[in-house]
Write a structure and sequence with these properties.
The protein is α/β, with parallel strands linked by helices. The protein contains 27 helices and 25 strands. Strand 24, helix 25 (664-672) and strand 25 (677-679) form a beta-alpha-beta unit. The chain is elongated and about 160 Å long.
């Protein structure tokens, strides 16, 4: 329901106000009355009317003053003047001051006044609409101007290049970032085509597809390699889209381009690092395997064959031991350079492992050429290498396999290649071997052992033997070494020399090593319950187990659970373990010592750089390797090594353990030099748990029978 128009009458004559109220209320107006100008102003302020009728002559504030005030208050509030003077000059003055119309008193025809009021209200409405329209238009213009200003500022200051072209691809606008990236000024770019940036590094199909896409009214996204004004190449991630008018006609194209040169450089660097060997710059094992898999797919489709060679540098360990690893690294890099030079860019040359390389020929290689290539490789490696005045000659063992005869997949082909290479080593090194079915049989046997090892723990196929350790001074058995044995069903006992390296290769050595630790400690406690004296037990720890597991936590858990006294447990570490990472090794050894156990260094003096770290490490025991013990009575050098180890151990307050003692002469030699602990077949072979318990209980009788030596040391 619409609101009634509100009319205000201002007149000092009540009769006139009353007649106006009666008439206009009948006409549908709401009417307010004021007897003078002051009261009229108050009503206007409190409730703005739609129209005002005021008398000219009134006491106090007259009609002219009311008109002046209303004009200041709201110049779109219609005001009609009632004039009873009959003087035309008064009416003119009222109109000049802002009255919208006038009528004389007495009012002869109120309908005429009604028409004047209707015209005035219509006029006021039109004025209001016009003002509102102009106000809205000004606000819209201000908003659009602000938006346009922001857009221009954003484009001009954008971190991305912005290019606008006409429908024919002629550049009409470029922003400052475009100038910064490309080196072309705005004046140089406008009027040209974007082809000025074309690098020639990408196929024409990309540009054809780009133009076809945007010409069809769609957006194109992609990466472009472009060229600056000075000729430098750079990469951009581009988004190019058409701009259309209201009818859908393309009027221009806009391209927004992000400089991704640094990102592409970083991606290339990551790709290089992921696929290349850091030391030699050759492709690494992972890339080589992926490449070989692709090559085999092609060969399968085309029913072709391929030969590859796997080669091992025979003398690298000797070089490292003699001249140090830095020298060895220089040798490896020079070998890699020679291989690349001999093979050329069509061959893939990769570093497979530390001192092993793989060479894969191009698919078009004629069968039989690999033999010639292998001979060229061997001759190149055999040539003298010279570094810092030192000359060395390297030798190489090469294994050659063919696909598909010698392997049906990448894994089997490489395994057989490695087996063939080892066969070349067995024939005297620096030789070339070809895969045979016999090698396949050996490879299959190894694969069988590997498969069975994965199930050995679950099937309870592992067991422990214990070799006694004897103290010549006291004449007592003071401990034993736990030795892992494996007897798989249907195969029979497998030598530790065969299965332990496989355990290390497939990563099971950590899990199996923990099993050994648990069972050895539990058995020691069981023997004590059965009446044996507290005997210490030595457990071998592989380098992999030492470096990969939280060994100190495992040891503490085993000791706490089994109840074995910490001082009765001795962990045997190899020299290869202590030189892997000296600082990390020291931290791990300190953590182990903190549990209260003992540490032994096994096979001392058979590895590299032992003396460098020995004085710093918390070692309680040195073990003299059986190879030295076996030869010490036959060669002066080995005797000197044994004497030196014993003297060194005593000087560092370490116990000495000699393993592999098999004759009374060896025993006498060692006891005369105060070697505290003897281990070997002279004392006993490795025994199972029941045999070991019986052996210790019967030891005094066995000792009297076996060791009635000169000087009475073993009585």
């Amino acid at each position: 329901m619409s609101r009634k128009p509100l009319l205000l009458t201002i007149d000092d004559e009540a009769s006139i106000r009353s007649s106006l109220r009666a008439f206009f209320e009948d006409c549908g107006y709401e009417v307010m009355e004021a007897c003078d100008g002051q009261k009229g102003m108050e009503l206007i302020i409190s409730r703005r009317p739609d129209i005002v009728i005021t008398d000219l002559r009134m006491p106090g504030m007259d009609g002219i003053e009311v008109i002046d005030w209303v004009r200041e208050f709201d110049d779109n509030l219609p005001i009609i003047m009632l004039s009873g003077t009959g003087v035309i000059s008064d009416a003119i003055e009222a109109l000049r001051r802002g009255a919208w119309d006038y009528i004389t008193k007495p009012i002869q025809n109120l309908i005429e006044l009604e028409l004047i009021i209707e015209r005035s209200l219509e006029r006021a409405g039109l004025i209001k609409q016009n003002r509102d329209y102009h106000d809205n238009l000004e606000q819209l213009i201000a908003e659009r101007t602000e938006q346009l200003s922001k857009l221009i500022t954003a484009v001009e200051q954008s971190a991305n290049s912005v290019v606008i072209t006409d429908p024919q691809g002629i550049i009409e606008y470029v922003n400052p970032k475009f100038t910064e990236v490309t080196g072309y000024s705005k004046e140089e770019a406008i009027g040209k085509k974007p082809q000025i940036l074309k690098s020639g590094k990408q196929p024409e199909q990309i540009y054809s597809e780009l133009w076809r896409t945007i010409s069809s009214g769609k957006e194109w996204r992609g990466e472009l390699c472009n060229k600056t004004k000075t000729g430098s190449f750079f990469w951009e991630l581009c988004s190019i889209a058409p701009i259309k008018d209201h009818s859908g006609t393309i009027t221009s194209f806009v391209g927004i381009k992000e400089d991704i040169t640094e990102r592409k450089r970083y991606e290339a660097e990551l790709f290089y690092k992921a696929n290349h060997d850091e030391l030699t710059g050759l492709f690494n094992r992972y890339y080589m395997q992926s490449y070989l898999e692709l090559q085999l797919d092609i060969l399968n489709r085309e029913s072709k064959s391929l030969s590859l060679m796997l080669l091992n540098i025979d003398s690298l360990k000797f070089v490292n031991d003699t001249f140090g690893h830095e020298f060895g690294d220089l040798l490896l890099k020079e070998i890699a350079d020679r291989l690349k030079h001999i093979c050329g860019p069509e061959y893939l040359v990769a570093r497979f492992l530390g001192d092993e390389f793989v060479i894969i020929p191009p698919l078009k290689t004629v069968e039989g050429n690999m033999a010639i290539q292998a001979e060229m490789v061997r001759n190149a490696i055999n040539s003298v290498f010279s570094f810092n005045g030192v000359e060395v000659v390297a030798t190489v063992s090469i294994g050659i396999v063919s696909y598909p005869e010698d392997g049906e997949c990448v894994e089997s082909l490489l395994k057989n290649a490695e087996a063939t290479m080892f066969q070349a080593k067995k024939t005297g090194k620096n030789s070339i071997a070809y895969f045979t079915r016999e090698m396949s049989s050996l490879s299959q046997k190894r694969l069988l052992l590997e498969t069975r090892l994965h199930q050995a723990l679950e099937r309870s196929e592992f067991s422990l033997n214990y070799q006694p350790q004897f103290n010549p001074s006291s004449g007592n058995i003071i401990g034993m070494e736990a030795l892992l044995r494996w007897t798989p069903d249907g195969i029979g006992p497998v030598s530790p020399v065969q299965f332990i390296p496989i355990l290390e290769e497939i990563g099971l050595i950590v899990q199996v090593g923990e099993w050994v630790l648990w069972h050895a400690c539990s058995q020691c406690v069981e023997w004590q319950r059965n009446g044996l004296p507290p005997l210490r037990i030595s457990v071998n720890i592989s380098a992999l187990q030492f470096m990969r597991s939280d060994l100190d936590i495992t040891v503490k858990r085993v000791l706490d659970t089994t109840g074995l006294a910490p001082q009765l447990l001795c962990l045997e570490l190899t020299e290869s373990t202590i030189i892997l990472d000296s600082e990390k090794t020291l931290e791990k050894m300190a953590a182990l010592i903190s549990t209260g156990i003992r540490l032994s260094l096994d096979d001392f003096c058979t590895g590299y750089s032992s003396l460098e770290y020995l004085g710093r490490m918390p070692i309680n025991e040195l073990k003299i390797d059986r190879s030295f013990v076996t030869r010490m009575l036959k060669t002066r050098n080995d005797a000197a090594v044994v004497n030196t180890i014993i003297a060194m151990g005593h000087g560092l307050e370490m116990e000495l353990v000699a393993e592999g003692v098999e004759t009374e002469e060896q025993l006498q030699y060692l006891t005369q030099r105060n070697c505290e602990i003897i281990q070997g077949y002279l004392i006993s072979k490795p025994l199972d748990a029941v045999e070991f318990e019986s052996f210790v209980k019967e030891w005094p009788h066995t000792k009297a029978q076996t060791y009635n030596t000169a000087e009475g040391r073993c009585q």
